[in-house]
Amino acid sequence: MFKAAWKSLMGRKLRLLMSTFAIVLGVAFVAGSLIFTDTLSRSFDAIFASSVGDVVVRPTGTSADDGPATTRTVPASLVDDLAEVDGAARADGNVSSFSTFVVGENGKVIGGQGAPGIGANWSDAPAAHGLEGLAITEGHAPRNGDEVALDAGTAERAGFEIGDTVHLVTSSAEAVLRPTLVGIAEFADGGSTNGATITVFDTTTAQDLFVGGKDAFNDVWVTADEGVSQEELRDDVAAALPAGFEAVTGDTAADEAASELVEAISFLSTFLLIFAGIALVVGSFLIVNTFSILVAQRSRELALLRAIGASRRQVTRSVMFEAVVLGAVGSTIGLGLGVLLAMGIRALFATFGLDLSGQDLIIAARTPIAAYAVGILVTVVAAYIPARRSARIPPVAALRDDVAMPESALHWRLVAGAALIVGGGAAMVAGLVSDIPRPGWWVGGGILAVLLGVAAASPVISRPVVGLAAVLYRRIYGSVGTLAGQNALRNPRRTAATASALMIGLALVTTMSILGSSAKDSVDKTIEENFYGDLVVSNVIGVPFSTSIADKIEKTDGVASVSRLRYAIAQVDGDGQGVMGVDPTSLRAAANVPMVEGELTDLDDGKVLISDSRAEDENVGVGDTVTISFPNGKEDLEVAGIYTTDNNTVLFYPYTLTLSTLADAGFQAADNYLLIQTEPGADVAALQRTIEEQTAELPTVTVKDQQGFAEEQRAPIDQMLLLIYALLGLALVIAVLGIINTLALSVIERTREVGLLRAIGLGRSQLRRMIRLEAIAIAVLGAVLGVGMGLVFGLALMSSLADEGLEVITVPTLQLVGYVLAAGFVGVLAAVFPARRAARLDVLQAIATE
């Protein structure tokens, strides 16, 4: 039986090839996602390992992430004392900033899209475990404020060489610097900066820029003597520290710095694997369809096997053997394609500033295991039902000319589909409106169940749509249209299964179209209703910028007020919470802050405004106190008012303080946004040009009017939608392959019928038109079902998000109509190959085909 199954498989290589594509694409996405995230994780592990010493000394309560953002420092006098601790080989102070960016010769910022711009003092201190850090490989280390060194990658991308003047942008009081490049630095062990830029100053200059000129450091590295462990050195160093400082091992500091990144990597991996799952679900319809048609075409052969003594189990196993081989081949090709996909993802992220070119791709053991497990499992599961059906062919059927495959009753499919739809709908409702853990899983599982339920019931649900297409075809195309309509109706299970692959892809695309359009329109409405400011100044790469910019703008003619917005992260009950700093008087003139209790102007030094959701969580009201842990220690702040974050484009963090309170808490002074109110009668456009001239040397800073601000807020939504559409395109490609595959196999199955039609006068062009119309009916059926479900999903999700500020529900009608029309065009393209093959069949040979 296995020998027979193998010969059968080899005899139908072309028929099975297109089914393999579904497995290949799905497995490639799984493998590519795992390879990319493993590569990303390994690369950052190397960076974090070289960014800490054996023991790190820092102000108590700070971490590797927020150290440079605070004003708390370690005095330089402590460094010499730490170098004398037992077990210490040396101690070195470090000054650093994550918002120092290099501007290339073309006037564009190098990196910055997610990757930090690191500014630091020069130090030749070894990193933890004896790793060598940055080393000057060309030129020399900077010696004064007019000199600077860059890492080799940044210098190359910026187009700078030794002796050139470097254009730097910082968040310090000096917004623009133009020192001379005197050194090129590289990691001695070949490490990569992953798109981050490193700018090295002499220690005095770094202290002037980043710690207010104090003779102090953000942290101190203590290097262990040979044979001394990090834990032993940490204990000895901690015993020598005065109050207010702490010592942690380098491994601990590296883990702290990596924690948020690991979470981000996990999200990215999950995000990519979700789309891999979608591709596999869509692909499974193609596999089921292929095996169903192949088994139907081999029914006489399988009946003969039964007649000569093969048992049902043997027939089932032979079909399953073919599925295993197909899954293994598809998984192997998919694994190879996954490596290429990972390279493509790496190149894509490099355009956003996350450059992993210095890190080799990591193919961990789990990647091929997952690839083969997923590919083979999906194929075997998809082939199981056709295999079971093949085993039910009675041996006596081999004696007949026509063998009919036993078909399950459609009403059972309808019942099962209805059950899945009801259960999935209930899970969606529970996830959207109930207070349950992990609601996203409930919503996602519910959507999947509804999709599978509609797919199961689609042979019945699709009849009205396909029947309408048949009527239209008959009236427009006459006998050719009648034949096309009858072919689509002949096997409703096959037609519906083929359309279901396209249905799932378009359902998700439609859902995202509604969410995206509604989110963008909600942003526009919120800004129009609540933003009074005439101009907005922000940093295009999302980091703080120098306060000198606001100082200069405030002195500009025509400017009535400048409202500064600053962001920070503080600790509340051990959790990191967003904190904002504002001037309530100037902010009230620039924006409408929706208050639930109290007034914006009730905010004063030593008080706090709190969001309504946070107030509910903490069960506090106006006049109560909340305790927040800042870099300078814990503070008990009186609640002066409660605001809502719904429709609030200004105060979106849970806590808001005055600028003075934020500064006293220990955060560095740097602005994130400026809201500019002009004087009555001032020419806003002319004032915008003036401010743009003032910030011409700061390509990181942009000046926008209200319309430009709205466009900036919509940009992340557009980027996310483009990414999602690109990933869902994978599912649509598989769906198109499904239509091609089904039509091609259907033509093979109907070879004698095609010959008879040609013999009685059906022309080649008429035959091609018949198959083309059949393909259009399948594609439009999938589009109608997909768009219809996408409308339901999108409207349901938007209704559930109304309380989150997304009040505008927009249905992009023209876009959805375009999807249906595009589906018809896809049907035309999918029919090209099968139609040409049918038209080229020899009439006499076709009639003689069994």
UniProtKB/TrEMBL annotation:
It holds the Pfam family MacB_PCD. Residues 274-395, 727-842 form the ABC3 transporter permease C-terminal domain. This is FtsX-like permease family protein. InterPro entries: ABC3_permease_C (IPR003838), MacB_PCD (IPR025857), Macrolide_Exporter_MacB (IPR050250). Belongs to the ABC-4 integral membrane protein family. Signal peptide: none annotated. GO terms for molecular function: transmembrane transporter activity. It comes from Nocardioides iriomotensis. It is found in: Cell membrane. The keyword Nucleus does not apply. The keyword Disulfide bond does not apply. Its main location: membrane. Keywords: Cell membrane, Membrane, Transmembrane, Transmembrane helix. GO terms for cellular component: plasma membrane. It is a multi-pass membrane protein. Coiled coil: none annotated. Residues 17-239, 495-693 form the MacB-like periplasmic core domain. The chain crosses the membrane at residues 271-296, 323-349, 369-387, 414-434, 440-473, 494-515, 722-748, 773-796, 816-835.
